[in-house]
Amino acid sequence: MAGMTPGTLVLLGFPPPRTPYDELRAAGHDPLAADPADAPETGPRYVAGAALRIGAAAPRTPLVLVAYGAAGPALPALGGAQRAAHRLVGAYVFVDAELPVPAGDWPDAPCGYLATSPGDPRLDAARLRAWRTSASAAAGSGGLASALLELIDDL
Asked: Which domain of life is it from (predicted)?
């Protein structure tokens, strides 16, 4: 992030074998797995549960909200909840994630999209939104944390 040091990296929707928690911590970052018991498809309940987990963790700002898969569409509402709680969101990052519907005053911070498989059509959709994008086959084979940090650094 040009001129900004990320505070807490908030991870949402990562299935256990794909969660880069340990690798991010080893790289000197402060990751927080903020998934509530509800599935991302529950919409507002998922956002409320994730917001409660983030608040309870007393994260360092600016937050970098990182969504995987079905958690992607929740990022605008979760970012709004963080603004309401007076926590700065420095960036939104989507990793092989569904994209939110463009609306209103969102995004209010830089966005990036990381695809771990070639030909992901969501990567093209992110490019059309003028987001930073990265396609990394290495991210699918254990280099996810490195590819994620490289994209965040580019935002």
From this structure: Bacteria
How many domains would you assign to the chain? 1
Judge whether 3 lies within some domain. Answer: no
What pLDDT digit, counting tens, does each position of 81-105 carry? Answer: 999 999 999 999 999 999 999 877 8
Please tell me the distance from the alpha carbon of residue 92 to that of residue 79, in angstroms, as a whole number.
9
- Long-range contacts for 36-42 (Cβ within 8 Å, ≥24 apart)? 39/70, 40/12, 40/13, 40/69, 40/70, 40/71, 40/73, 40/74, 41/70
CA-closest candidate to residue 9, choices 63, 85, 53:
63
In a domain, 60, yes or no: yes
Q: What is the DSSP track for 24-67?
A: HHHTT-EEEE---SS-GGGTHHHHHHHHHHHHHH-PPSSEEEEE
CATH number at residue 36: 3.40.50
| pLDDT value at residue 141 | 46
Residue 121: inside a domain, yes or no? yes
**Domain assignment of residue 115, given as a range:** 8-154
